[in-house]
């Protein structure tokens, strides 16, 4: 596993060819394979990701609703919470519940 900054890279088995590097569909004749285009015949893919270390804070949000407001009149049926409460783990109540 290679780590570059906060980006992590790992090798995974290519799901298209099951790690063989060869793809075969019903279009190919018996005994014929095609180099897998998803892994270029390597049998592997490189998965790059940034590990989750916690929710990131936003500075542009004050209030959080459980779902999108369709009409301004919907506000009276919804129960928003403060962004600080949301960031600390609380969830707003969905008006359908």
How is the topology of this model organized?
Layout: E1 2-4, E2 7-13, E3 22-23, E4 34-35, E5 44-49, E6 63-64, E7 81-82, H1 83-87
Antiparallel strand pairs: 1-2, 2-5, 3-4, 6-7
Task: Describe the overall structure.
This protein is mainly beta and 97 residues long. The chain has two domains: 2-49, no CATH class; 58-97, no CATH class. The protein is built from one helix and seven strands; from the N terminus they run E-E-E-E-E-E-E-H. The protein has one helix at residues 83-87; strands spanning 2-4, 7-13, 22-23, 34-35, 44-49, 63-64, 81-82. The protein has a three-stranded antiparallel sheet, with no helix packed on it. Strands 3-4 form a two-stranded antiparallel ribbon. A hairpin with a 2-residue loop joins strand 1 and strand 2. It starts with a strand and ends in a 10-residue tail after the last helix. The mean pLDDT is 86.
Percent of residues in beta strands?
15-25%
What are the segments in which pLDDT stays under 50 over at least 5 consecutive residues?
A: none
Mean pLDDT: 86
General form = elongated
Radius of gyration: 24 Å
Largest sheet: 3 strands, antiparallel
Q: Tally the helices: what do you get?
A: 1
| Helix proportion range | under 10%
Characteristic terms for this protein:
97 residues, three-stranded antiparallel β-sheet, two-stranded antiparallel sheet, 1 helix, 7 strands, elongated
Please provide a brief summary of the model:
The chain is mainly beta and 97 residues long.
């Amino acid at each position: 596993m290679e780590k570059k900054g906060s980006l992590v890279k790992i090798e995974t088995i290519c799901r298209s060819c099951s790690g063989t590097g060869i793809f075969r569909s019903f279009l190919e004749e018996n005994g014929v394979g095609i180099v897998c285009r998803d892994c270029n015949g390597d049998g592997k893919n490189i998965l790059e990701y940034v590990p989750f270390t916690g929710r990131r804070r936003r500075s542009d949000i004050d209030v959080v609703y459980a779902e999108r407001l369709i009409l301004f009149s919907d506000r009276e049926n919804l129960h928003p919470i403060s962004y600080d409460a949301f960031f600390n783990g609380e969830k707003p109540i969905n008006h359908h519940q």
